[in-house]
Amino acid sequence: MPGDALLRAAGSLRAAYEAVDWASTPLGPVETWTTTLRNAVDIALHTRFPVTLLWGPEFVLIYNEAYAPIIADKHPAALGRTAEAVFPEAWDTIGPLMRHVRADHGAVWMEDLALPLQRNGRLEEAYFTFSYSPVRNEAGDIEGLIDIAVETTRQVVDQRRMRLHGRLREALSDVQRTADIAASALPVLRGDPDDLPLVDLHLAGGARHEPRLPDAPARPLAGRGLVLEETGAGRVAWLGLGRGGPETEPLLVVGLSEHLAADEPYLAFLRFIASSLSQALDRVTVREAERAVAAAERSMSEALQRSLLTTPLAPDDLQIAVRYLPAAAQAEIGGDWYDSFLLPDGPLTLVIGDVSGHDRHAAAAMAQVRNLLRGIAYTPGRSPAEVLAGLDRAMHGLALDLVATAVLAQVEQDADQERHGRHVLRWSNAGHPPPVLLDPDGRARLLESTPDPLLGVAAGRRTDHTVELTPGASVLLYTDGLIERRGVALEERLDWLARALDGCEAMDAEQLCDHVLDQLDDDVDDDVALLVVHAPREDPGGRA
User: Fold this and answer.
1) Closest Cα partner for 437 from 362, 507, 532?
2) Contact 151/126 with Cβ under 8 angstroms?
3) SS3 of 400, please?
4) CB neighbours of 103 closer than 8 A, spacing ≥ 6?
5) Least confident window among 89-103, 137-151, 168-182, 495-509
6) GO molecular function: any one (predicted)?
């Protein structure tokens, strides 16, 4: 096979291939390559998945178009060079793996392996799932390795950040004084040196805890804004936490990691952390002030909140019930909402959600998100995961600077299911508490799954889940005000909710909503929204 024909499939890399002096590499001129190498190159260049060959005892790199973006500015110089020369920063990790395969000890598979790479002008934090497999010639001898790889950096980093946020929310859940916020939050934040190598909180009357960070930003922040500065400590992000005067403005200050690009996902994560701190700060510092708001304003606020929650719609064979309970000690409206509507192609769509914040801005943001979601969902043929992914894109494209959680579900029924009175609930979860399924036998169970990222944090792949709704089954959707309590672990409250529903199979949708609210104590300091869908049993006459 002539050299030009072999490299014809290289696409945009062809010029780079032709620029390599292959005769000066351990592989020699292209026309002298072995049949095994030629066949392997042909396979690699004809696949769209990232593939590189690591050939000969020196592990010389030959790769395809899909692999080039992974190594960024190492390309095109990496073509024809040895793996050790291309990846000196990772050689101590990958070198032994390559030699293991080369020595005929079997293929290796690594999942989400940390492999910092020198690329884009920095030693970047990076993670990969990949396999090194031997490539043999007709005699059975190993001539080289094939590396099939995918970069998982975004997924690994997003999951790490979601775990950190969960720990932070738990640490802040029972804070009672402003002075305790830093003591509770900083140990959690400093437990993630990969994202937050240097971090401090500047709160009114509090001491500075990180002397390596500057005392104040070069220019003042506006409210909950974000400012990036280059300082002696490297690049620093200042994030306002809201409330406070010009000399007591509460701030989150972070020395950014030199191994991460200061891109939108990184900055969105910092805003998300700042949002949680802002909520805790607001809750601690203004609760008493909010309770002093006139009763008339509270009544007006509640009326405004309820006006944003429309009457739910449902098909004839299902029951829908909803409830909204404002916080017991809060005069301002929040961002909780529910929704229920029928799509043009038949399925019933159910939504429960919560926009971050507890003020009129949160309610306005909720209205924006709710209406956006309705419009996107009304396009026929979209699954819940596709609708939430579309909502993420719309929020980003329309520059909605907010964070929200939600569960979106569709109740489907084909002709066979209709004959047997069965339905399928298909749902997707954007960082929201899990739905609860009450089976016809009276057993309640959480529909738990790994939540997808919150809305407005980071765009990414979203997942659909399904469960069958048999006659007599019910599903409860709710916001976090139902289960979150200061000083009580979230798992305990989820168990409490499941126990509260056990044995309630005889209740219809309205009764279930009332029963759940009857279980609450008076210490409800966040709004509660409920939505119950119930598939009635058929009576002996065949009627629901």
Assistant:
1) 532
2) yes
3) coil
4) none
5) 168-182
6) phosphatase activity
Side chain identity, residue 400 = L
Is residue 291 within 8 A of residue 484, CB to CB? The reply is no
Q: For residues 518 and 437, what is the distance between their CA atoms, to the nearest angstrom?
A: 19
Q: Can you say whether residue 106 is alpha, beta or left, with left for phi > 0 and alpha for psi between -120 and 50 degrees?
A: left
- pLDDT by residue (tens digit) across 189-212? 999 999 999 999 988 766 667 888
Query: What pLDDT was estimated at residue 364?
Result: 76
Domains, the chain, with CATH or none: 3-151 (3.30.450.20), 155-291 (3.30.450.40), 296-534 (3.60.40.10)
Confirm whether pTM is higher than 0.90.
no
- The number of C-alpha atoms within 13 Å of 302 and in the hemisphere containing its C-beta is 19
Sort residue 529 into left (φ over 0), alpha (ψ -120 to 50) or beta. beta
338, β-bridge pairs: 352
Chain centroid to CA 516: 29
Task: Give the number of residues written for the chain.
Answer: 544
Segment among 317-321, 330-334, 395-399, 440-444 with least mean pLDDT: 330-334
Cα–Cα distance for residue pair 441/26, rounded to 1 Å: 70
> DSSP label at 309?
S
